[in-house]
Amino acid sequence: MMGTASGRMRQTILVWLKDPAAHFPAPNHRDPTGTGVTARAVAAKLGVPRRTAHAHLCFLTRVGLLHTRRFRCRTYYRRDEIRIADVARMFEKGW
User: Fold this and answer.
1) Is 68 helix (H, G, I), strand (E, B) or coil?
2) CA pair distance 58, 38, nearest whole angstrom
3) Rounded Cα distance, 95 and 89, in Å
4) What are the percentages of helix, strand and coil residues in the chain, rounded to 5?
5) Which of 7, 38, 58, 77 sits at a 20 to 30 Å CA gap from 70?
6) Where are the beta strands (DSSP E) in 13-73?
7) How far is CA 26 from CA 7, 9, 55, 60, 82, in A?
8) Distances (CA, A) of 31 to 26, 44, 50, 60, 85
9) Is 12 helix (H, G, I), strand (E, B) or coil?
10) Structural Rg of the chain based on CA atoms
């Protein structure tokens, strides 16, 4: 079972990634909405070690709520809006 603090942290990450341009500065003039956000950027914003942010991002990826994209030596994370909508519908139906 997911701890309360972990759940809130993951929910916060999902909220931030809904509008990444508003929450994360764009490095190298890249648009974080299209490219995604690194674990390092999420860790800095959360104020936690990169390893902690990475663990939460990996969890969200494993359950299908995030997509990843490798660019050079970094992994970028973006929301999977279709999957998130599917999960929301399941909960609305009382699943």
Assistant:
1) strand
2) 12
3) 9
4) 60, 15, 25
5) 7
6) 66-71
7) 26, 22, 23, 22, 25
8) 6, 18, 21, 22, 23
9) helix
10) 13
Q: Quick one: tokens of 36? A: 């995604």
The single-letter code of the amino acid at 63 is V
> For residues 78 and 36, is the Cβ–Cβ distance under 8 A?
yes
- Full pLDDT tens readout for the chain, 95 residues: 456 889 999 999 999 999 998 998 766 656 667 788 999 999 999 999 999 999 999 999 999 999 999 988 999 999 999 999 998 898 888 76
CA proximity to 69, closest of 42, 29, 49, 39: 39
